[in-house]
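hey m, so remember when u said the tokens were messed up on ur end? i reran from scratch. heres the input so u can diff it against urs
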Amino acid sequence: MQLLPDARQVLKGQVSLVLREQLDSKINRVKKATKTSVKGMAEAALNAGALERLARLKVWRAEIAREHNLPAFVIFHDSTLRAIAERAPTSTFDL
């Protein structure tokens, strides 16, 4: 493998190399952090019983997703599971 002349100078320390982070990656990180905090706030608003139901629903969803070889969000989105856990339907009609 041959190195370009500029690469040799960098490796020898004769030329300094400055790297910069792309703007897109910073934007994505900010969006992701915002999304996570909104989700956390929604779950924090649930009472203890609803949090327990939500945990059981997420386990159930993961099992179904594994059986069908699908991502969990395809079965039900987190917001749907939170709504079900909050309302605690007692019958299929209520659901």
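this time it looks ok to me. The radius of gyration is 24 Å. if urs says something different then somethings off w ur setup not the seq
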